[in-house]
Amino acid sequence: MQPHDTSRHSSSLGLRADTALVIALLVGAIVPSTASATPPDTYGFGARARALGGAVTADVSDSSASYHNPAGLAAAEGIQLSIGYLSLSPFLDVNGERSNVERFGSLEVGMIAPVKLGDVTVAFGLALMLPDQRLARTRSTILNRPRWEMYDTRSQRLFLAANLAIRPVRWLTIGAGIAFQAPSELTLDIRGDLALANPEANSRLEHQFKGDLTSIRYPAVGFQIRPNDWVSFGMTYRGQYELANRIIALADVRVARIADLTFGLDTLSTSLFGPQQIATSFAVHPMPNVRIGLELLWMNWSAHPSLIPAEDITLGLEPAIVELPGNIEGRVAVPLGLRDVFVPRIGVEWTAIRTHAIELDLRAGYYYEKTPFPLQRGIMNFVDGDEHSASIGFGLRLTDLRPTLPGALAINGYLQWSHIVSRTHVKDSLVDPVGDYRAGGNLLGAGVQLEVAFQ
Amino acid sequence: MTRAMLFALALGGASFGCASLGAEAAFPDPIQTSGVGPFRPLDAAETGLEAAPAGRVLALTGATGGGMRVGERFFHARADALAEPPERDETLPATAVDWARFGPRRIERARRGPAQGMMASEVALEAGAAWEGDAVFDPWVVLLEDGRARLYYAAAGGIGLAEAPSVDGVFSRVGDAPLLEGARGPTVVEDGDGGWLMYFEQAGGIGLATSSDGRDFTVEIAQLVLDRRALAEDDPEELSFHRPGAVWATTPADRRVLRLYFEVWKADGTFEATMAASLDGRELERLEGPVYGGDESTGAPAPFLTDDGATLLYFTLDHAVGGEPVRAPVVGVTPTITRFD
Fold first, then answer.
1. Position B339 in a domain
2. In this structure, what is the dihedral angle of CA atoms A96, A97, A100, A106, given to the nearest 10 degrees?
3. Residue A322 half-sphere exposure, CB side, CA atoms within 13 Å?
4. Chain B contact for A255, CB < 8 A?
5. Which SS3 state, helix, strand or coil, does residue A68 take?
6. Which of A105, A146, A433 sits opposite B18 (nearest CB)?
7. From CA A450, how far away is CA B8, in angstroms rounded?
8. Which of A268, A340, A383, B193 could form a disulfide with A439 if both were Cys (CB 3.0 to 4.6 A apart)?
């Protein structure tokens, strides 16, 4: 259920000095930087938003605003807490064989805390998407393995966003925030003596492991304009982020007290990338109980760096008691050749029941996301295809809960079906190590969310 | 409304409970639809044979010249050791069979056992015509739509043809002269237009002959271009090409591709099985490497497509008995995840 602004205050386009100051501080605090890609980019955030095909940027004001448009936080009528769970099961095939893309499940937690400062509303929002298996996963790209880039490793990330929003006038909300991701640098250092005879008993090897998980941030900025009760407009910008993982392995071992063996591996890979995005959206209410949202999302996938790791391998033996390869060639990063995509979205919401104690919304949504990946004619095998996604959902809002709850309790649920259009990849080379293949499939998702809104 | 609150608490608890579910999924399986390998040798559980080396498809005494599979039958050339063999020809690759140290080669027919291994080998054709000398070898069998089987083979004078009413029938020679004089290692496939393509070995290269009826062949290309694009610095020079084995395969993209497997002899005294592919059977793209990942010399590759799209490759692998190289017939499979349990 989307709380709508029903106030009829007139407004002015001019901003007051204090409001302008707050906006300046807010925007100035957001420093654009390269960062990472997130599960919400693939799956969205919040049960209502998913049921509406993600076409909510113009008028979102629940906890999913932290992802879809931070400006919507300032439109919340009171403190909101939400918790939900989503599950999405992929049924993706390559050449008729099921790919091992695992089910994605995640806990979603959201919070909005608005504060009234005179006529100005300032709101703080938090959103957390916690995958149910791991906080982050990195998988190197194996060239001859099909990889569903959008639905495999990419989704295995924790998403955390913190946002601030302001409503300086009744018809305008502005919001901005940052989301966090964690790249990693792992170092394994092995030193000591290696005995060839009975090495388990006679070798003396020490190893040291160091892992750094440092945070990176990327910005999200948005606004909503609601000039009247029947139309609203919104726009969101999300910054680009790139998650690099570096693994360094060093070995300096004296073999049987006669030779020093050195080995070095330095691999740098991009495990996750999020393109900068701009979502532009309209929402209209042609009838009092009907809301239609239209949205167009631009995703700058063409800026994607290579997912093939760059590797530097060194191997030495002094004195040379056995012959070692003169040169060990690591992999060289290969451009992906992605293209920008536009994603049209539409969502329809119908308030079927509205009494003083209960409201029931029925929802439906659809979006079409063309894959940014070109046909895989060369050495790479990213098999993602164009996606048609349809969803239905409901929102049940209980509004007469006093004295138990001074506010409203809402339950939102949805079902989602996504069809990945089958694509036939024909290799340029007849002796390609992988060969031709077809890839396509479906994804089935469902989720439920509980939301408590205090007045 | 207390019920509503209890329901809400239950829902929240269920959400946290769901968040603890899940299990790690394995990496996706590799895709290998081009037949370039690397081929995985079948293990003993798949072949039903315990004999070394890994992938052994037939365990017999004597030396083998390799074989090919048609249906559930395996045609191969074999010879028994001589009691008093002559000196070994030192110009041969170290692990190649010196046929002068063995008795006359003959073509045998084995049948598939309960697993992928072959058994009950029997003589299918022995040398008999004047042009054949004392040996017949390099068998390649084609099944016709009416059930007849054509056996193309090599002998001293060139490539011959025999036919049988069925793959298990008695083979009778067709004509009294070789189809192609001086050639060896025939492999025959349909060309897609009702005609036939025969790849053969001659003068250290592989040629192509064509036929409208599968009986009378005309050499179209004496030496196909099969050279690698570039040899790496440490790679030995390639001296000659031998023992072609061809098959048409349809890819998941519905492309019909001719795969031509063959044996390369190299300047370091080793040889290896590799392949090339073509859309028209004439212009071929060479694989830059072997189709088998081991260090041993591999020879006489003969492909066989299974109904589920896997490629079995029958070839010979280094094997010696009492220090005498005899080769061993083995079978490998790609995609490597394919199993025959």
1. no
2. 40
3. 6
4. no
5. helix
6. A105
7. 7
8. A383
Query: Which residue, B35, B33, B37, is CA-closest to B292?
Result: B37
List of domains in chain A:
17-454 (2.40.160.60)
The span from the CA of A419 to the CA of A390, in Å, is 9
Rounded average pLDDT over A58-76 = 95
ipTM metric: 0.90
Q: Which of A180-184, A364-368, B116-120, B189-193 has the lowest mean pLDDT?
A: A180-184
Q: How far apart are CA B263 and CA B327, in angstroms?
A: 14
How many domains are contained in chain B? 1
Q: State which residues form the domain around B129.
A: 36-82+92-225+235-334
Residue B15 lies in a domain: no
Query: Which CATH number characterizes residue B61's domain?
Result: 2.115.10.20
Does A170 contact B at CB distance below 8 Å?
Answer: no
CA distance B196 to A233: 69
- In this prediction, residue A99 carries a pLDDT of 86
Percentage helix, strand, coil for chain B under 3-state DSSP, each rounded to 5: 10, 45, 50
3 state DSSP class of B284: coil
Domain presence at residue B25: no
B20 belongs to a structural domain: no
Predicted local confidence at residue A354, as pLDDT: 94
What pTM value is reported for the model? 0.81
Predicted confidence at residue A35, as pLDDT, reads 28
Answer whether residue B22 shows pLDDT above 70: no
Contacts of B5 in chain A (CB under 8 A): 404-405, 409
Q: Does A132 lie at the interface with B, CB-CB under 8 angstroms?
A: yes
Strand partners, A270: A244
User: At residue A66, what are phi and psi to the nearest 5 degrees?
Assistant: -60, -25
CA distance A165 to A113: 10
A49 touches A272 (CB < 8 A): no
